[in-house]
Amino acid sequence: MEIKKLYECTVIINGGLEDDAIAATMDEVRNVIAKNGGDIENVLEVGRRTMAYPIGKQTIGSYAHIEFRGEPSGLAAIETAFRYNENILRFLIVHLSTPLLEMRKRVEKYSVVIGSPEDQSEEDQQEESVAAKK
Q: In the chain, which stretches have pLDDT less than 70?
């Protein structure tokens, strides 16, 4: 038995599909990962986005990021299943090594959420406080 490693998979599903079909495709993605020895830790469904360039005449894709632990020997079967799924336009599986995880922690530590008080300039904050007083 191999040691399970941490992976991140980004999937772009055809955005022209109905919401039910996108949800069904996401269920298939989860099932393929689980069937091939993967333990899903985190799923972030970003939703529909306009792509930078068309893929297979599609300009809108539904994006999802999945973090899972799996054996390296199971990746080939996962990739093959994704390639044969017509609803998946693109996918990328990346091994999250220790340096990558450390870099991610540093970025999260210093990142600012858009719309948070840290994101606003002093002028915006002053305008909001003046508006609140009125």
A: 1, 111-134
